[in-house]
Design brief:
0% strand
Length: 138
């Protein structure tokens, strides 16, 4: 049913166009001449653009321009993030460099085993012969 309505509407509009064109030719005048002249001018301009513009090259140039702007925006955001992290780390380093007063406890008495082992190592160093430079390289 919808197709019949659309086909009938097409015939009515086509017939109306033919009747209006014949009527304008007999009277040698155009209805709404001012608006139709402006419309004709716009249609000629659009047709000129369609015929003479390379849309593939235009689309390529526009996509490259947009990609450049997006990459610039992403680089700018990443630089701001890096600077923010740098500020936080700088504050942390300053805080850690400040000398805090730490309570130092007196050293506990060294155990007997550790004393004996340290003395043994000292005596062992004293008894070892001096090595020549050639022997030290191996």
């Amino acid at each position: 049913m919808i197709y019949l309505i659309l086909i009938g509407l097409t015939f009515v509009l086509s017939g109306g166009f033919l009747v209006l064109s014949a009527y304008e030719q007999t009277r040698e005048a155009r209805y709404y001449e001012e608006y139709r002249a402006r419309l004709d001018k716009q249609v000629k301009r659009i047709m000129f653009i369609i015929e003479h513009v390379d849309f593939v090259a235009f689309a390529k140039d526009e996509s490259l321009r947009i990609a450049g702007k997006v990459s610039h925006f992403v680089a700018h955001l990443s630089l701001q993030a890096v600077r923010e992290v740098e500020r936080v780390l700088t504050r942390l380093v300053r805080y850690l460099r400040v000398h805090h007063h730490v309570e130092i406890r007196p050293a506990a008495e060294t155990r007997e085993f550790v004393k004996t082992l340290s003395d043994f190592k000292e005596r062992l160093k004293d008894t070892m012969p001096e090595l020549s430079p050639v022997e030290k390289q191996d």
